[in-house]
Design goal:
Blueprint (H helix, E strand, L loop, with lengths): L1 H32 L6 H13 L1 H12 L3 H27 L3 E2 L2 H21 L4 E2 L1 H18 L18 H29 L7 H13 L1 H12 L3 H16 L1 H9 L2 E2 L2 H25 L1 E2 L1 H18 L3
Antiparallel strand pairs: 1-4, 2-3
């Protein structure tokens, strides 16, 4: 009984702190990018995405060192699926406005992420992730990021329309706030996994659906906060950037320290299904050029479809 109370307290407290810290991260990141030549989308895709992905990165290291490979891959792949469908789908709904997107940029990210997920499925066919495999995962993230950092598509916002001073101070605040978001979410995820211990379910499935919801909360909170403050490119960049990180860097960082064994019959189908979902999302957005509540509902239904498929494997 006491353990359950502590777990619930960790979930509620961790997520509450995460919400509060994310507001400081969004405000200061937007101001940090103001007046520079770095597009808001790229700021969200790199700086914010790395910060909000700290829970997945931390989980990758802890799970790998402790010999729980399925927890690492399940959380990482599950988070990629959650962010590309559920988080991205909720943005125009909670933001209350349609999002105009760069078709070229969305297509770049989509191709890089789908390729990385399929590459990862191939690497895990032998049932493990070695240090060489881990380096390949990390290289895929670096290449995908470089592609997105390429020449910005015509018509995209080049800088944020804000004035800012003392960029060093704002950089420190951003990093500290994102660190708090990550740390608070790790506490919340501990609560989730403690509550889920009694469920007779494979680690991969528990991590894919339960842990990923907790570790994806920073992306949801930060992106929706950015949406409500009018920073749509920052929000979309964070969601898509986190999806690529979870498909690559998040999986590889742990096994780089301690190689892991994974359950091929679960991690490979999970990676392929996630690649398909990301491909559908990227194709839909690149064809339409905008993201409305209608596409948002479609993406949320796509997320729910994972339950019907993966739970029956």
């Amino acid at each position: 009984m006491l353990d359950a109370i502590l777990a619930i307290s960790a979930v509620v407290g961790g997520f509450t702190v995460s919400v509060l810290a994310s507001r400081h991260a969004v405000t200061n990141t937007a101001e940090l990018a103001a007046g520079t030549n770095i597009p808001p989308f790229v700021v969200g895709f790199t700086l914010l995405a790395l910060g909000t992905d700290l829970p997945e990165i931390a989980n990758s290291i802890v799970a790998s060192v402790s010999g729980h490979g399925d927890l690492n891959v399940g959380d990482s792949i599950g988070s990629a699926a959650t962010q590309a469908t559920l988080v991205l789908g909720l943005l125009p709904i909670v933001g209350g406005a349609a999002i105009v997107l760069s078709k070229t940029r969305v297509l770049r990210v989509g191709i890089a992420t789908v390729f990385s997920l399929l590459l990862g499925a191939g690497l895990m066919l032998d049932g493990d992730i070695s240090r060489i495999d881990a380096l390949i995962f990390i290289a895929a993230w670096a290449i995908g990021t470089a592609i997105t950092w390429g020449p910005p598509p015509e018509g995209t916002q080049e800088e944020l329309s804000l004035e800012t001073t003392n960029k060093l101070k704002k950089t420190v605040v951003v990093l500290l706030a994102l660190g708090v978001v990550g740390g608070a979410t790790i506490v919340a995820v501990w609560g989730l996994t403690t509550l889920a211990e009694s469920i007779d379910t494979p680690e991969f499935i528990v991590a894919f659906f339960l842990a990923s919801l907790g570790t994806s909360l920073p992306e949801l909170v930060v992106a929706t906060t950015a949406m409500r403050r009018g920073q749509t490119e920052l929000a979309v960049g964070d969601a898509l950037g986190a999806t690529l990180i979870d498909s690559t860097l998040s999986i590889g960082i742990g096994p780089l320290i301690a190689p892991i064994v994974v359950t091929t019959s679960l991690v490979v189908p999970g990676s392929i299904l996630t690649a398909g979902a990301v491909g559908i999302v990227a194709l839909t957005l690149s064809v339409r050029g905008n993201h409305t509540w209608k596409t948002g509902i479609f993406f949320i239904l796509l997320y729910l479809a994972f339950y019907a498929v993966l739970l029956n494997i």
